[in-house]
Specification:
Length: about 250
């Protein structure tokens, strides 16, 4: 089968999120996830670095016709490319993470995301591969973590089951009854704008020898990203910060 070409996301504004499966390992699980989405009215599916070739007859069969009724599944080689146009990124996890990042139970997290979607923000919800879930570097892109509580004695949650839980909560949530922490007039900048600023900032800090200890550099970089990501910077705020960097690095 011919593999779908990677392309930039098409900007869409609405009340429905995109479901992004990161490094899915089995085409059948993709199909089952699509079926779970369709059960609760979600139809925008993206794949990032899937193990099996796409399109997939196995996925089509497992979806019970759901994939045929959805827009074409978009496939990306890299997470950074896939996330470029989202204003708000929610990442799912079945286990507690030791990260300096906001985390809520899945119902509260979905309520927050839906409230933002109704403000016109574009929402992406991330799911990790079947065996390991999302890695910390992937979770690092998210504004908020959605924790799906499972029994500690049997924490194995199937990918399609996780998608089913999130899709169900999305349909059930009534945003009108949610008191959101998203109070800014301007929405957060698309992720690509934020990422470009972070890349520039870290490059300047590298040039100025900010990272004194090589072993601490990855942690310091992650902490800087998380601190700024929590600020929910708008496009105008990022432009202002670019101006600050330009001023600070200009030759006297």
């Amino acid at each position: 089968m011919k593999k779908r070409q990677e392309k930039s996301p098409v900007a869409m504004v609405g009340t429905w999120p995109d479901i992004l499966l990161i490094r899915p390992q089995m085409a059948e699980n993709i199909g089952a996830a699509a079926r779970a989405m369709a059960n609760f009215g979600l139809n925008n599916l993206c794949l990032v670095a899937p193990r099996d070739p796409w399109p997939s007859a196995e996925a089509e069969r497992m979806s019970s016709g759901a994939l045929a009724h959805m827009p074409p599944v978009r496939v990306f080689n890299h997470l950074k490319t896939a996330l470029s146009d989202y204003h708000f990124i929610l990442a799912t996890t079945a286990r507690q993470r030791d990260m300096a990042k906001p985390a809520l139970p899945v119902r509260a997290a979905i309520a927050e995301a839906k409230d933002r979607a109704l403000q016109g923000q574009r929402i992406g919800i991330l799911f990790g591969p079947e065996r390991t879930g999302l890695e910390n570097d992937e979770l690092n892109h998210a504004h908020l973590l959605a924790h799906i509580p499972v029994d500690v004695d049997f924490p194995s949650l199937n990918l399609a089951q996780a998608v089913n839980i999130v899709a169900y909560e999305w349909m059930q949530t009534e945003a009108a009854h949610v008191h959101s922490f998203a109070t800014a007039i301007d929405p957060p900048a698309p992720h690509q704008e934020f990422d470009e600023f972070i890349v520039r900032l870290l490059s300047i800090l590298e040039d100025r020898d900010f990272f004194k200890t090589e072993g601490n550099k990855p942690i310091m970089k992650r902490n800087l990203r998380n601190a700024l990501l929590r600020g929910q910077l708008s496009s105008q705020e990022i432009k202002t910060l670019h101006g600050v960097l330009t001023c600070l690095t200009a030759k006297p």
